[in-house]
Design goal:
By secondary structure, this protein is an alpha/beta fold. Helix content is 21%, strand content 26%. The strands form 2 sheets. A 7-stranded mixed β-sheet has the order 1-13-12-11-2-3-4, with no helix packed on it. Strands 5-6-7-8-10-9 form a 6-stranded mixed β-sheet, with helices on one face. The model is unreliable at 1-23 (pLDDT under 50).
């Protein structure tokens, strides 16, 4: 089956994408199920593809709308901006940081995308974090942020040695979440073939989910070796789904985990899964 034409036109109706009713896979949640009582001990938001500074787009408004949507969410522990923070011009990077800083004191972290065309040194200087980094939250949860591009904007496989070391360091944690801007498999229009990366992720049982950006027209779920890979659509830029969106992920005290894609404009749940 040629997946590319199907994925190219993926919209809200296709958000479920893959939902196998077998053991080891997630289940889709209805709006009623999602709105039932859930007491998270860890909650984060990820959003991608703001493309701050892209010509002929209202990037000021799209960023302000996202900041307001995040602030409407309760009990958020942190935010991850999953790549394409700016649109090519390195001079824009300090400007978008000023926008993100409106979230403070809520912590936020950034992933490098193919339009974030600054040097590694400049990235570290502006953001205070390397483009490949990992950290622990609440002594239970691991977050791994990986760079899948370079200053030229090439699509790259992530650094497997770094990923392996991070996964080894975190193998005793309850759950680990991975963030990569560019899909490491060519199951979307703009993904690339890096099967060894997916094989590495599959070897660690505590990796709960991987989150991607990059594909503005994809907001659903794919599986590889019983590991879920989620997309978040986009909240900026000039193309893609007509509903700017962000993704929420929550874990309760029993270790139950769920994620929902939400519309920026009103926080409406567009799709949700237990994982």
């Amino acid at each position: 089956m040629n997946r590319r034409p199907f994925l190219k036109n993926l919209t809200l109706l296709g958000s479920g994408l893959v939902a196998f009713p077998v053991a080891g896979f997630s289940s889709s949640l209805s709006k009623v199920e999602y709105e039932t009582a859930f007491q998270p001990v860890f909650k984060f938001i990820t959003a991608s593809d703001g493309h701050f500074g892209q010509p002929e787009t209202d990037y000021i408004t799209s960023h302000q709308n996202l900041i307001e949507a995040i602030k409407r969410e309760s009990d958020v522990d942190l935010v991850v901006f999953n790549g394409d923070l700016i649109h090519d011009d390195p001079l824009l990077m300090p400007e978008v940081k000023k926008v993100y800083d409106r979230l403070l004191p809520l912590p936020y972290y950034v992933v490098k995308g193919n339009h974030d065309r600054v040097s590694e040194d400049k990235w570290l200087e502006i953001w205070g974090q390397a483009s490949n980094t990992f950290f622990t939250v609440k002594d239970q949860f691991g977050m791994i942020l990986l760079n899948s591009s370079n200053e030229a904007g090439d699509y790259l496989c992530v650094d497997q040695d770094f990923l392996r070391s991070a996964l080894e360091e975190m193998q005793t944690l309850e759950q680990v979440f991975v963030f990569i801007h560019i899909s490491q498999r060519d199951w979307t229009r703009h993904g690339i073939d890096c099967q060894e990366v997916l094989d590495l992720i599959a070897r660690y049982t505590n990796v709960k989910a991987t989150f991607h950006g990059h594909d503005h027209d994809v907001d659903g779920l794919m599986w590889n070796q019983k590991k879920p890979y989620f997309w978040s659509g986009h909240f900026g830029g000039s193309w893609g789904n007509p509903f700017p969106s962000y993704r929420v992920c929550e874990v309760d005290e029993q270790g139950k985990t769920r994620t929902a894609l939400k519309r920026v404009s009103d926080g409406e749940m567009l799709n949700a899964h237990s994982i």
